[in-house]
Amino acid sequence: MFINYLWLPILFVTHDFEEIIIVPIWVKKHSILLSRQKHPLFGGLSNSSILSIGILEELLILIFISIYSMFHPNNSIYFGIMLTYLIHLFLHIIFCIQYHCYVPGIVTSLIQIPICINILKINLSSITLPVIHTILVSSICLLLFFINIIFIHKLMKWISNKSLL
Q1: What sign does the dihedral 135-95-155-10 (CA atoms) show?
Q2: CA distances from 51 to 55, 90, 91, 121, 152 (A)
Q3: How far apart are CA 126 and CA 117, in angstroms?
Q4: 62 contact partners, CB below 8 Å, separation of at least 6
Q5: Of all residues in the chain, what percent are helix, strand and coil, respectively (each to 5)?
Q6: What is the CA radius of gyration of the chain?
């Protein structure tokens, strides 16, 4: 059971390595396309060090949730976070369609989507709480994820503007 809860940070790190490596090159190559966007992908960042700060913050949250879930295996928080992560992976497919090209993170997204679905099925079968509780917790996780993404992008933009890295 221990490894089950570690899947989330492992999948996240694998996915985000693809982004850390490819984002700077991709942003430079697609700068004209991104300049037309109100909210460009990856905040228009071309510095992997700054992107890594946001990724580290998210990873620490996922590690905390995974450890918490190991000691509270009958909770729906892990399910909600995994569902949120799965939605994030599907967004990469939408971005590929929107931009008509490869988008950093799509390769690992396509590999990880079936894995996440399987983990969700296994996790859902172990939750004994009412379905409405799981839906509510999942909705809260999704909302907090989007709030955190906004915070991370503002933080990374601030670091970039201050030339701290």
Answers
A1: positive
A2: 6, 20, 18, 32, 9
A3: 15
A4: 8, 9, 12, 81
A5: 80, 0, 20
A6: 17
Q: What is the pTM (predicted TM-score) of this model? A: 0.88
Q: How many CB atoms lie within 10 A of CB 118?
A: 11
DSSP 37-102: -SS-GGGG---HHHHHHHHHHHHHHHHHHHHHHHH-TT-SHHHHHHHHHHHHHHHHHHHHHHHTS-
53 near 63, Cβ under 8 Å? Answer: no
DSSP state of 129: S
| Banded pLDDT at 111 (limits 50, 70, 90) | very high
Taking only the tens place, the pLDDT of each residue in 121-140 is: 988 888 888 889 989 999 99
Per residue in 150-165, pLDDT (tens digit) is 898 888 888 888 876 6
Give Cα 83 to chain centroid, integer Å. 10
- Whose CA is closest to 9, among 47, 51, 65? 65
51 pLDDT tier (thresholds 50, 70, 90): confident
